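Appendix C: a fully annotated inverse folding record. The material below is reproduced so that readers can follow the format used throughout the book. The structure is listed first as tokens, followed by the designed sequence.
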């Protein structure tokens, strides 16, 4: 695949609060301390919409906004790809609980947020975007699926695309079933040309090898328990600014990400 360029980054996880404060941790220059995450906030939405959002939606919007701001992308919102393995499991839990009660009192707001593309819809409102958006899920290969989709759109349409990948810890009744025990979100703004690229370029190739473990054991624990956190392998390369390769699981085999920093 032809190269795509990384214009901006956003990240949120335990001990990783924003790209600026997390880059040193991600490249191994500082110790990762997996402290509890603060509740993500966003002032981008109007008050009515903001009251209807969930933790998961706020998490996705927080990293999306950071990546666009980091890239200084101007006033034209880019198209987007949102990727999550399981969507909003808190909403799923609330709906399933309501269905066990007399008269099945499912809240209209909860139901409204149950669709997989709810975060992308709120992002369209927050950013005033009229560009197309796609929402994808592919179990442990969700990050790879999202990155491939976003990079393909960049190359086909010759326009920047915002990739947002997120998963929130499952509530206790669902945790043993879905296995998501860590919360993680990241966003990268990808572009077709090097002009404005802050962090380097990526080439993607499907392969068959195993995924790579991260050198930091606490970051590896996040990667192991959250499908979205497979993106930590890419963030490790971006933070280190050294040419290299990351291998992440895909729906079939793996996705090899070759990174070249800006010269």
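Designed amino acids, in order:
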């Amino acid at each position: 695949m032809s190269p795509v360029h990384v214009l901006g980054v956003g990240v949120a996880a335990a001990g990783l609060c924003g790209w600026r404060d997390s880059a040193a941790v991600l490249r191994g220059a500082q110790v990762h301390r997996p402290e509890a995450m603060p509740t993500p906030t966003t002032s981008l939405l109007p008050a009515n919409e903001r009251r209807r959002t969930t933790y998961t939606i706020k998490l996705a919007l927080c990293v999306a906004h950071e990546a666009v701001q980091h890239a200084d992308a101007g006033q034209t919102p880019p198209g987007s790809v949102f990727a999550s393995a399981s969507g909003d499991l808190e909403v799923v839990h609330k709906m399933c609980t309501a269905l066990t009660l007399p008269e099945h009192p499912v809240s209209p707001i909860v139901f409204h947020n149950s669709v997989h593309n709810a975060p992308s819809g709120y992002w369209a409102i927050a950013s005033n975007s009229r560009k197309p958006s796609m929402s994808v899920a592919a179990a442990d290969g969700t990050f790879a699926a999202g990155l491939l989709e976003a990079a393909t759109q960049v190359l086909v349409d010759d326009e920047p695309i915002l990739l947002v990948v997120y998963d929130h810890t499952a509530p206790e009744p669902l945790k043993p079933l879905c296995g998501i025990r860590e919360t993680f979100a990241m966003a990268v703004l990808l572009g077709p040309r090097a002009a404005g690229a802050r962090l380097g370029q990526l080439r993607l190739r499907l392969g068959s090898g195993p995924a790579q473990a991260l050198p930091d054991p606490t970051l590896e624990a996040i990667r192991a328990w959250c499908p979205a956190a497979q993106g930590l392998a890419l963030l490790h390369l971006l933070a280190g600014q050294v040419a290299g390769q990351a291998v992440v699981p895909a729906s079939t085999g793996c996705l090899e990400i070759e990174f070249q920093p800006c010269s």
